[in-house]
Write a structure and sequence with these properties.
Rossmann fold; 48% helix; 9 helices; alpha/beta; globular; 7 strands; single chain
C-alpha cells in the first residue's frame, strides 16, 4: 500500500470516527427536579394508606365507566341497578369516586345500604368525589398506578360500562394481568352491547384471526350483556363453582 493510500485510509477512518461520535451524542433534560428522588416516599404513603383502609373491608366489585355520563342517561341508571344488585349479593362496590358512571355505582351501593368505596384521583379537570361514598372510605390518590393497584387487588369481579380512554386503560390492564396470571382469574363483564360488541369483534378479527396476537381462549375472559341480572348470574356462577369460602381473597400478595 502506498503512502497516499495510507493517508486516504486514515482520513476515512477519522471521518467515520467523527460520525460515530456525533451519533453517540445524547439528548439532555431541559429540566430535572431535585425532589424526584423523594417521590418514592409519596408513593409508599399512598400504598400503605390504601392497604390499611381496604384490608379492613369486605370483598368488593370494581365498576368502571365514563365520568361524563349524565344522570338521565340509561347507562347511569343501569350502573345504579347493577351496584344495588352487587350489594344484595353481599359485595361492596369500588369506583373511581368521580361523577358519571362512578357516581351511579356508588349511589346504587349507598342507597342499598352497602359498602361504597371511592378511589379518587387528583386531576386538573373533571374529577371530584361524588356524595355517595363513606368519607372514611374515600381515598385520594396522586398517582394512577397506585390507584390501579387498589382497584385490582381487592376486586372479586370487574364490571365495565361505556367510557373513554381511562375506562379502556383500566379494562385492558385487568385483562393483561389475568392473561399473564399476575392476578387471580375473576369475572370481567362489559355492560352495553351496542358499545362493546364492535370492540370485541375487532379484537377477534384483527388480533386473533389476522395476527395471532391473542389466544382464542383469552376471549372467554369477556362477557357482554345489557342485563343486570345476567351480570350477577355470571359472578354468582363463577364463585359457586369455586366455593365462596375459599375463593374470596385479595387478587395477589406483594
Amino acid at each position: 500500500m502506498s503512502l497516499n493510500d495510507h493517508k486516504i485510509k486514515g482520513m476515512t477512518e477519522d471521518h467515520q470516527d467523527q460520525g460515530k461520535t456525533k451519533l453517540r451524542e445524547m439528548k439532555k433534560w431541559s429540566e430535572l427536579k431535585g425532589e424526584d428522588s423523594w417521590t418514592m416516599f409519596k408513593v409508599i404513603a399512598e400504598l400503605v394508606h390504601g392497604f390499611e383502609t381496604l384490608n379492613r373491608l369486605s370483598p368488593c366489585i370494581s365498576i368502571f365507566g365514563s365520568a361524563r355520563t349524565k344522570p338521565d342517561h340509561p347507562y347511569y341508571q343501569l350502573a345504579v341497578e347493577i351496584a344495588r344488585r352487587c350489594v344484595d349479593e353481599g359485595f361492596g362496590v369500588i369506583t373511581g369516586a368521580g361523577p358519571g358512571i362512578m357516581e351511579a355505582a356508588n349511589k346504587g351501593a349507598y342507597t342499598q345500604g352497602g359498602l361504597s368505596v371511592g378511589l379518587n384521583i387528583s386531576l386538573p379537570f373533571e374529577q371530584f368525589h361524588n356524595p355517595y361514598i363513606d368519607p372514611s372510605k374515600n381515598l385520594s390518590h396522586r398517582y394512577f398506578f397506585v390507584r390501579k393497584v387498589m382497584f385490582v387487588k381487592y376486586a372479586q369481579a370487574f364490571i365495565v360500562l361505556p367510557g373513554g380512554f381511562g375506562t379502556l386503560d383500566e379494562l385492558f390492564e385487568v385483562l393483561t394481568l389475568i392473561q399473564t396470571k399476575k392476578i387471580s382469574r375473576v369475572p370481567v363483564i362489559l355492560v352495553g352491547k351496542d358499545h362493546w360488541t364492535g370492540l370485541k369483534n375487532w379484537i377477534y378479527e384483527a388480533m386473533i384471526e389476522k395476527a395471532s396476537y391473542v389466544s382464542p381462549p383469552d376471549m372467554d375472559l369477556l362477557h357482554i350483556t345489557d342485563d343486570p341480572e345476567e351480570v350477577i348470574s355470571v359472578i354468582s356462577k363463577f364463585y359457586d363453582e369455586r366455593d365462596y369460602t375459599h375463593s374470596l381473597k385479595p387478587n395477589y400478595e406483594l
